[in-house]
Amino acid sequence: MTLLPTPVAAFGYLLAAICFIVAIKGLASPRTARRGNLIGAAGAALALAVVLLSTEFAGANLAIVLVTIAAGAVVSVPVARRVAITDMPQLVAIFNGIGGGAAALIGLIELTQHEVLGVQGDAMAGTAIATGIAIGSLTLVGSLVTFLKLQGWMTARPVVLPGAPVLFGAAVIGTIAGAAVVAATGQVWWGVVVLVVAGALGVLLVLPVGGADVPIVISLLNATTGLAIIGTGWAVDNVLLLVAGTLIGAAGTMLTLAMARGMGRSVSGILFGALRGSSTAGSTQASDRPVRSATPEDVAVALGYARRVVVVPGYGLAVAQAQHVVAELVDALRERGVDAVYGIHPVAGRMPGHMNVLLAEANVGYELLVEAGEVNPTMPSTDVVVVVGANDVVNPAARTEPSAPIYGMPIIDAEAAGQVFFLKRSMRPGFAGIENELLYSAKTQVLFGDAKDSLAAVHAALKTV
Amino acid sequence: MDAMTTLTLLVLAGFVGAEVVSKVTSRLHTPLMSGTNAISGVVLIGAIAAMAGTTNPLLVVLGTLAVLLATINLVGGFVVTDRMLEMFSRPQGRRGGDE
Questions:
Q1: What would the DSSP string read from start to end of A366-427?
Q2: Are residues A378 and A455 in the same domain?
Q3: Least CB-packed of A318, A406, A413, B50 within 10 Å?
């Protein structure tokens, strides 16, 4: 006996599905985003209540489930609350990956139960289960590789194994063939084979993706989780999972395309560009070409007597946790009557919107954050551009060098301003691993050092000029 | 549910999913990715449904692991998304003192 009759449970799932649609719609607009997220959480809580009250549990399973859910919440809340803002993309990748892992495990459980009950051979159910296992495993392993890349535990450069296209093709065919055997026979061990081969496919898919493209692949793997959930929903015959999985798959696909478009890249170019042997030019070696270096006083004088200043922040600002210091400097300039604003590149940092989040943390008003498309026309009348810990997003190679990995990406046109200061720790190239000709331009000077220290020194020097 | 009903449901839900995110500012790309990721944690109910009726110890262990992973995805996903969005929605305008 269960507490909820089936029609009531079905109605509860319908309400949860509506919550998810409203949640995703809310998340897509700045005004309603936070409320949208809470509505999504409410939908998930409702779905959880419905499944607990409408399912018959054998033995001590209900107690096990409740304790495990409590344990999962205890583990995840502190991690999610304390993670540094720079590490959020990795955390999302991990969360997404383990969600896929859960879908793969559910597939194996269903497969075993079908074998025990002797109901193998239902091709529809078998296909659903095989989909859950294959896509879930691919998502789990692929997400782990993106985590390693973003965390810096392995190189962020594209990695192309010898014979990669052949291996990749073999893994695709192996996964599909294995899934077909699972669908036809329902044998558990073939499910394990699919799990392993699809995991290898996940590695082969993500390894050749380099640098700034990694967040787009996280988004793609987010969409594939949706597919895995469709497989799960089909296998356990749950309408809410079918709807939620499809919503996530469709919204995730649109989002992935939008992110790729924002960087002037194509999804197939991101995934397979390195395999085709194109666009991996560049090096992570520090260049030994001469640059003109500047002192904090040089920068302070140029800024203090400028009419218009654009600060272009990048990942270095996030790493140095310099968002408060840069906001103080810009405030000081504005108090002096300098028209100082931030030029925000949509993909500066390690995730789209990274800089908005970071500067919002320092209470910088939206009106000072000017998007690339709006700031570029004002560049010729801008006296000074200060590039803080950014590189690729101001690299003119995106316009002039067809062989560069970032070719075609919209950039902030710092080159057009009167004077450019780079605040950098070293001469190492940016995430994309390519030289930035702007560094060697006659109008450019570099202030070496940690962004936080450099900005504080410039701010101090500004008081004396 | 028969195959045709399922297919109808999937196609309609797919159109809804694509439509609701069709015009989203790049600033919200990451929270939106994180939020949809959190929703994918609802696979938790699949994990519960799959393990509920079994007494096979191996399946209970696998199911418990699936419940744990899905819960971390679900709860952690919503919390981290809320944190991202909290940073967006701080009071605008002049900066106050640092906390």
A1: GGGEEEHHHHGGGGGG-SEEEEES--GGG-THHHH-TTSTTTT-----GGGSSEEEEEESSS
A2: yes
A3: A413
